[in-house]
Amino acid sequence: NTNLNTNIDNADDKEKGGNLAKSSVFGSKISIKSDGNTLKIADFKRHFGKHDGIRIFALFDIDENNEVSKDEFKKRYKSLLKEKELLDEALTANDSSIKKLNILCSIILYPIMFIFMMFCLDIYSKVKGFFSMISAIVLSISFAFSSVASSVFQSIIFVFFVRPFDVGDVIEIDNKIFIVADLGILYSTFIIDSTYETIPNDKIRDKPIKNLRKSEYVTVNFQYQCSEKDFEKINQLEEKISIFLQENNIKYNEKFRIFDFCQLNNSEIKFDIQIIITCPYQEIITLEDRKDKFSLFLFYTTKELGMSLRRHK
């Protein structure tokens, strides 16, 4: 078992040397000290290394003001505890699904084993007529429920082998956000707009599923259109976007592209701007905020360049 105990100490407490946060990880203590009531990125780099320090700092810097306050540390720590609870729920759900699978396998295998034993003990010939009648009934039932059997088999593969999500995951299907509340063999329950909804697995298994827990980054496309005259400034816009992403490389990946150019009937040109956003701990609000921040950047930048950019519908 791994115990993670974190205390938020008073920065004015002289006995504790102004520690803002203390963590006990795997039995060893790590103290992050600060001169005031906040932690800077240098504090995280010093204790966690440059690469991990930057990522952990970005995780705790909720208001994105380049420092971590006590309230931010407490809020993020609570969210990490909630994440742990979700993982525990996912493990419990996995155990429940495995038990259901064991029951299903038993229902299928025990009759087969029984018939095999009858053959081995030479009892089958004595009750051949009875088994012929049972076989005819089973065969007719199998034809009637062949679609159900096929659906069950495909759902077993979907749930236990493909397994695109677990309980507690935040996923995106058809541009809608789902929170996984329960994962079953035939049906799964999701929270959609604060409402529980049960959906058959065969309705979603053929659709593209984005799992934000398993994704470090999320690719987002913005479709715009502009006049041919404004399109002449697209290279300037590309330079501005590159600078913006480099300056905000903790929240965005520096890679982006402008593509899929298309001439419209009204002498305008449609194109896509694709960026990659970091997605910390399935935080949909943070993801949406970063989408909005980039949209506002485009609005003010195109206004500065004298471009009239409109979202393509």
Walkthrough of the structure:
One of its GO terms (biological process) is monoatomic anion transport. Belongs to the MscS (TC 1.A.23) family. The protein is an alpha+beta fold and 313 residues long. Helix content is 46%, strand content 27%. A hairpin with a 2-residue loop joins β8 and β9 (195-200).
What string gives the helices and strands in order?
EEEEHHEHHHEEEEEEHHEEHE
Strands across the major sheet, in which order?
Answer: 9-8-7-6-10
Report the top-level CATH class of the largest domain. Answer: Alpha Beta
Q: How many angstroms does the end-to-end distance come to?
A: 52 Å
Second-tier CATH architecture of the largest domain: 2-Layer Sandwich
Percent range of helical residues:
40-55%
Query: What general outline do the C-alpha atoms trace?
Result: elongated
Q: Figure out the total of helices.
A: 8
Q: What's the CATH topology label of the largest domain?
A: Alpha-Beta Plaits
Subcellular location: Membrane
Membrane topology: Multi-pass membrane protein
Pfam families: MS_channel_2nd
Family: Belongs to the MscS (TC 1.A.23) family.
Compact overview of the structure:
This protein is an alpha+beta fold and 313 residues long. Helix content is 46%, strand content 27%. It has 3 domains: 37-121; 126-212, Roll (SH3 type barrels), CATH 2.30.30; 217-311, 2-Layer Sandwich (Alpha-Beta Plaits).
Index terms:
single chain, 313 residues, SH3 type barrels, Alpha-Beta Plaits, five-stranded antiparallel beta sheet, four-stranded antiparallel beta sheet, 8 helices, 46% helix, disordered N terminus, MscS-like_plants/fungi
